[in-house]
Amino acid sequence: LFFIGQLISLIGTWMQSVAQAWLVLKLTNSSMALGIVAFAAYFPMILVGLFAGAVVDRVDRRRLIVIAQVLLMLSAFVLCALTWTGVVKVEYVIILAAFNGLVSSFDMPGRQAFVVEMVGREDLPNAIAMNSMIFNGARMIGPAVAGFLIALVGVTGCFFLNGLSFLAVIWSLLEMELTRRVVAAASISMIRRVREGLHYVWHHSSSLWLLIFVAINSGFAIQYTILIPVFAKNILHSGARGYGFLMAAQGFGAVAGAIAMNSRGPSARALRQNLVFGFFCTAASIFAFGMSLSMPLSLLAQMLIGVGLMHQMVTTNTMLQLFVTDELRGRVMSLYTLSFIGTAPLGSLEVGFLGDHASPRIAVVICSFFALGCGCLLLTKLKMFALAQAAHEKQGLDDLAAAGLHREVD
Fold first, then answer.
1. Residues of 55-70 as b/e, b for ≥16 C-beta within 10 angstroms?
2. What is the pLDDT of residues 18-29, one digit of tens each?
3. Radius of gyration of the chain (CA)
4. What is the DSSP string of 231-267?
5. What pTM does this model have?
6. CA torsion, points 319, 322, 325, 329, in degrees to nearest 10?
7. H-assigned helices in 29-154
8. What are the CA-CA distances from residue 388 to residues 114, 232, 383 (Å)?
């Protein structure tokens, strides 16, 4: 149910993402405007991200996700109405982007933490990889469909279909039969719960460094994506359809990367290798995209970027969730979301500014250097990650042994 509902909904979300960027570029023809819209989407997550995790740990996560999906559906229909009536302005797009960012502050960590409720810890690595396959499978289909629909029915049709697609995920969540998660009565304040999450991450070096890598890479390396419509229109001269294919190529690469990761298995050593490969593959491919002047090479670079991003993001998510207990899971995943989003407003403005005042190609090449820096720094931390993984595997075996002893006593 989750797979089907999420796939349909995320296809719609990617359709809207492509259509919205194309709408902003059509209204303004400005790289900076694209950066401002991205900034508006990210900034609310910085404001409420820490508190959102505390909320996720205290409420029914499924109900929280349903409410968030309803609000995002209404936002899509509002944008559809604005474009259909011809009164849309870039200011309205910015306001709706900020609203979506606020809702996503609760939705994203909620969905990340909800995965383990469906499958348990044993199947968590494969479940996270499958969840990412859903996301990137939608990224492969949605943008390609959007590229055709923009040419056929305009951006309005994309916004309308995205609104309808939320019905699938809402239905799937309501149809699930899950053991009700027991939430202990709140005995400490919201501020105290936030401090507990921060204290855990600060004193768990491996988790802290994983979040630092996410913050640098997501904030400054992969923000090159806001310039993809500029490349499609002004450098590759491929129009909305080409933009859709460029975004779809990255999704295709990510799905291929997920399949490759599943075939290797979730061993501790494989996880570390996935991280290293992910950062260096991403860095080299973003550089190639920035230097490319041909559509085939740009598509290939986008596919390889998808492969690299899948390796680093799924592995980071898996390692964080294997390290943390369920009591802190929502707070740690909100910190993951905050790391993923927190530096993005600065990165989006920086990339937009460089795209306008230097050139889009220079802006993208600079993004590749941030990914390369993450990869080089990661190499110095591999021993720390190995020790942390060994300690947690030993703790897991001790827990199993204790559980077996209790069963024998019973």
1. bbbbbebbebbbbbbe
2. 899 889 988 888
3. 21
4. IIIIIS--HHHHHHHHHHHHHHHHHHHHHHHHHH---
5. 0.71
6. 50
7. 31-56, 61-85, 90-119, 124-153
8. 24, 44, 9
